[in-house]
Amino acid sequence: MKLNFKSPFLFLPLLFSFSLSDLSSDFYSVSCPNVELLVKDTIRFASSTDPTLLGKLVRLLFHDCIVEGCDGSVLVQGNRTERSDPANRSLGGFEVVEEAKRMIEALCPRTVSCADILVLAARDAVEIAGGPSVQVPLGRRDGLTSSISNVRPNMIDTGFSLDEMARLFSSKGLSIDDLVILSGAHTIGSAHCTSFSERFQQDSKGNLVPIDSSMEKDFATELIKQCPANANDTVTVSNDMVTASLFDNQYYRNLLDGRGLFKSDSVLFVDERTKGKVERLAEDEDEFFAKWRESFVKLAGVGVKTGERGEIRVSCVNVNE
């Protein structure tokens, strides 16, 4: 099976036993009481000139949490780090996380972890895009290592079946319900044409034709128009072509219409175990937002490090010397 290293968010078969018991929503209430405001203001200002940043930050959090847990290890620069793997080279949002870190270090030196800043940044990105506000527990510490060797074995392809995805989610304490809800992150952001290329093939004239019957015909035609056979690997399309910049439940409506961008999206409406969930979320945005709050907190708790298992980095791009 071909691994696709430009998928918008991917999950891994690592067994995580996580608990939020060491985290709390008021963790920085004394040591850095303005941390949440500082992060939100940074994200709001940056996204006002680059709206694509919001989707990038959500994706960045997913790619952090799936490898070594939510420990900021994806932010570290350098050869052979997680960030250098092909799966992560198309990620964005690093600069705004580092900018928030610089501001916070000036006011609260060696106090707030990059891992917490990234969780807050992704949380705020969803809210700024029109999604729900979420209260997240804080107190994560930054990972002490970041290794490329931990990335590739733990990535899955967007062509995976529901069984494969459910098994991987279960290994991290996440349910099929969480899978359906967290897939709703595809309501914002964009994806490279190569991330869904397996749904097409070239005919004798070199033109792309759809081979995935679950795609609605006009949608497939539009994808071919935006991603022709000669498109280079930097070309992207919106995950949700209807309300591309708005965090809403349009993603689920798209699935009902055969307009899921990835095969891993489409299977959610094809499989009877998840079809009813998709239908309910397509009808009720309030339910989606309520469930998003729960699943986001669960995701942000995967593999968290506290105490001596981590550190507070001075800069998010470097592990402390």
From TrEMBL:
Its main location: secreted. Ca(2+) 1 binds at residues 64, 67, 69, 71, 73, 82. Keywords: Calcium, Disulfide bond, Heme, Hydrogen peroxide, Iron, Metal-binding, Oxidoreductase, Peroxidase, Pyrrolidone carboxylic acid, Secreted, Signal. Heme b binds at residue 186. It comes from the Eukaryota. Its EC number is 1.11.1.7. It comes from Asparagus officinalis. This is Peroxidase. Removal of H(2)O(2), oxidation of toxic reductants, biosynthesis and degradation of lignin, suberization, auxin catabolism, response to environmental stresses such as wounding, pathogen attack and oxidative stress. These functions might be dependent on each isozyme/isoform in each plant tissue. The active site is at residue 63. Its cofactor is heme b; Ca(2+). The keyword Metal-binding applies. It catalyses: 2 a phenolic donor + H2O2 = 2 a phenolic radical donor + 2 H2O. Residues 22-320 form the Plant heme peroxidase family profile domain. InterPro entries: Haem_peroxidase (IPR002016), Haem_peroxidase_sf (IPR010255), Peroxidase_pln (IPR000823), Peroxidases_heam-ligand_BS (IPR019793), Secretory_peroxidase (IPR033905). Ca(2+) 2 binds at residues 187, 240, 243, 248. Residues 1-21 form the signal peptide. Gene3D superfamilies: 1.10.520.10, Peroxidase, domain 2 (1.10.420.10).
